[in-house]
UniProtKB/TrEMBL annotation:
GO BP: chromosome condensation
Name used for this protein in its record: Condensin II complex subunit H2 N-terminal domain-containing protein
Cross-referenced InterPro entries: H2_N, Ncaph2
Pfam family, one: CNDH2_N
Annotated ranges, domain Condensin II complex subunit H2 N-terminal: 5-86
Top-level taxon of the source organism: Eukaryota
């Protein structure tokens, strides 16, 4: 695992300097990148999941509003289908 490689490299410190060769640096970098990629992919999947939940919730709320408007006697313009209008004044 790349974390073990990092520990091994750091444990060879000489006078505060860490001797490292290109092959070890490449392996360390590769391991770090793979770890980062896994975290980004996991975050991406979480965002997609939340986004799909939001879409389903939005569709559900929209459908509920449409159902309520269909059942309601009050129209979108504010007029009431059940109101009896006499002399221009609405009575119930």
């Amino acid at each position: 695992m790349w974390q073990n490689n990092l520990k091994n490299i750091c444990s060879r410190s000489v006078n505060g300097h860490v001797p490292i060769n290109s092959a070890e640096a490449a392996l360390l970098l590769q391991g770090s990148i793979q770890s980062y990629i896994r975290k980004v992919e996991y975050l991406y999947s979480l965002v997609l999941h939340v986004y799909s939940l939001d879409l389903h919730t939005l569709e559900f709320i929209t459908q509920k509003r449409q159902d309520q408007q269909e059942k309601s006697s009050i129209h979108l313009d504010g007029s009431d289908a059940d109101a009896i209008v006499d002399d221009g004044v609405a009575k119930r």
